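Protocol step 6 of 9: fold each sequence in the batch and record its structure tokens directly after the sequence line. For illustration, a two-sequence batch is reproduced in full.

Sequence one:
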Amino acid sequence: MGAHQLVEYATASPEVRAVYDDIMATRKTDWINNFWKALASDPVTLRRTWESSKQIMAPGVLDPLLKELLYIAVSVTNQCPYCIASHTASARKKGMTDAMFHELMAVVGMANETNRLASGYQVEIDEQFKTS
């Protein structure tokens, strides 16, 4: 059980219902997931987070599947089971295959390992890698 009560559509304030309606319309779905229901206990945070997420995860220079893959990678690194599950489901709907997921996990694992090694060894950044 979560630390905060989930706000269901039926008991939500008009302000929260408006955000829920936008989530459902944008995502072309008829339900609200638990992440948004948990945030709804603070309508200001709910709206701000939804607006930011909607903007950032929309198609842009990076395609939607790549954005989901990046989200999974960060979620694995940050050890957020909810986000891993949610964004893995979303990535699968956008075309992620099992092979893509396995390769992504290999990259995430390697990046985390080499990041820790570089940090632990306090490796100085090469001049060629530095930006002005």
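Sequence two, same batch, same settings:
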Amino acid sequence: MHGGLPGIAGRYAETSAAALVAAARVEPTDLIGTQGRVLSVADFLSTLTVEAAVHHLDLVVRLDRPGPAAGPLAEVRRVLEGLLGGPLPARWDDATSARRGTGREPLTDQDRAELGASAAAFPLFG
């Protein structure tokens, strides 16, 4: 149906390239509509980056392939910290932050103790 992973990857790369070309023609503060919502171009690009990085992590759980690059993972962490309203544990690397912040990996007892009342907000998004 989709041509397997190579087909999906090719279509995703093409769509991503088109989004970047379109984004370069507008201001980051310009507003766009997508999926029934209105957001800035900057927030739209952040959303695409976060979705791609998190789903990339999902894929490499069972594949012997490298995970997302540092830049996209740092953006995931930035967004999660914004949703939390404060920093995630400093001992978490960005991949751990992404997995735990989205509920793909459970919080440990140590995490809950460190996060305190903020632990109840997890997952920050799923």
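Proceed to step 7 once all outputs are recorded. Observation for sequence two: The longest strand covers residues 31-34.
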